Amino acid sequence: MSAFARRAAAAAVALTLGACATLEPQLPQAQPGVPAQFPATAATPAGADTGATAWRDFLADPRLVQVVSRALEGNRDLRVTVLNVERARALHRIQRADRFPSVGATGSLTRSGGGDRESKSEYAVNLGVTAFEIDLFGRVRNLSEAALQSYFAQAENRRSAELALVAEVANAWLALAADRELLKIARATLANREEALKLALKRHELGAVSALDLAQARTAVEGARADAARYEGLAAADVNALALLAGSPVEEALLPKGWEGAVSRGNAVPANLASEALLSRPDIRAAEHGLRAANANIGAARAAFFPSITLTGAAGTAAGELSGLFKDGSFAWSVMPQVTIPIFQAGRLSANLDVAQADRDIALARYEQAIQAGFREVADALAISGTALAQREAQEALVDAAIDAERLSRARYDAGRDGYLGLLDAQRTLYGAQQGLVAARLAEQANRVALYKALGGGWKEAAK
After folding, report:
1. Which fold has domain 1-24+101-134+309-341?
2. Is pTM beyond 0.85 here?
3. Euclidean distance between CA atoms 66 and 44, whole angstroms
4. Topology of domain 31-99+138-306+358-454, per CATH?
5. pLDDT mean across residues, the chain
6. C-alpha 303: how far from its chain's center?
7. What is the CA radius of gyration of the chain?
């Protein structure tokens, strides 16, 4: 290689390595307007929150863990999200490749002639670089950074989708457990009322009860029968919902038979939880990466106003005969730098910059909106957590009182002191209290899942 070729190659390398300027603006600071701490509430009870950071640690029932694992593997919506991450990773690799020279080898044969000229052939083999942009103003690097941040955003979207799927499966599991428990209560109530109807028929035949009491007994039976049919249909729909989330039917052995207690565990959330806990939410992280990508695109749009330098060079051999390609004197080289200066673009460059700046402002607004939405979700979940335990305990006390009232009312009815209407009211009160207890338990457990999801998979106290 000649001295000139060596100097040209060295200059190209120096330009490549020294091209570190960038026109990307400073990243704007988000101003979401949320308090530094969540609203003061009573600390959630032990075991009622989301202190665990992994869903396997958060979920207490091993059967539910298996169903969630199957869903994470077989859910089609999540599969699309995972493929989008792979696509974003490939796009970043494509964009990053523009920061390095593309070296290729070419072999060619040129045959020329015509008229009285003798035909001749020329063979050539070259190794070279084609149209490599010297990134003086950071355009290529900004585009690569934007692609990288978009990839990071997609990765966070995947985490968000996984977290949402865990919560959906847990909620579907809880709904099935609650509906099957309500079905048990409805069937037990139906059996009791059918026995009461048989007794009422015998007593009516003996003239001990009126036709009105008999009609009321039949009404109570049919009401319980309708409830049992309704809850049976709801439970079947819950099984179908779990199958859709899991991507395949779930065996009965992995499903709850009824209400079987809490499905989550963890440490108590502190009453003065800082809003910085939101930073673990994947959707907020994704919005931040989207903001960084949009900000990098502004740098690329600004760099387009300045001259760009591309380098094309090759070194190889050329000869008139194929056998002479690698003989002495066949070496050949070429260097062709090209400078492009934008002069008149009819406002295209300015419009591109305006679009990039508008995209950045939109991304900033979406980032702030994600923080505000996350703050509200956590605040709502914390507010409900402070009262869910009290509501459940009150409902349990109501069921105990309703059981005593129904027992006493039945004793008075059997003794002939009260009519059937009083007993029927006591039975309806007990039935409603039992249904309310299932609803209170479901709301408490669903709130734990909602808090876990709202905090991005568990809270972490800030390092002191």
Report:
1. Outer membrane efflux proteins (OEP) (2.20.200)
2. no
3. 27
4. Outer membrane efflux proteins (OEP) (1.20.1600)
5. 83
6. 35
7. 37
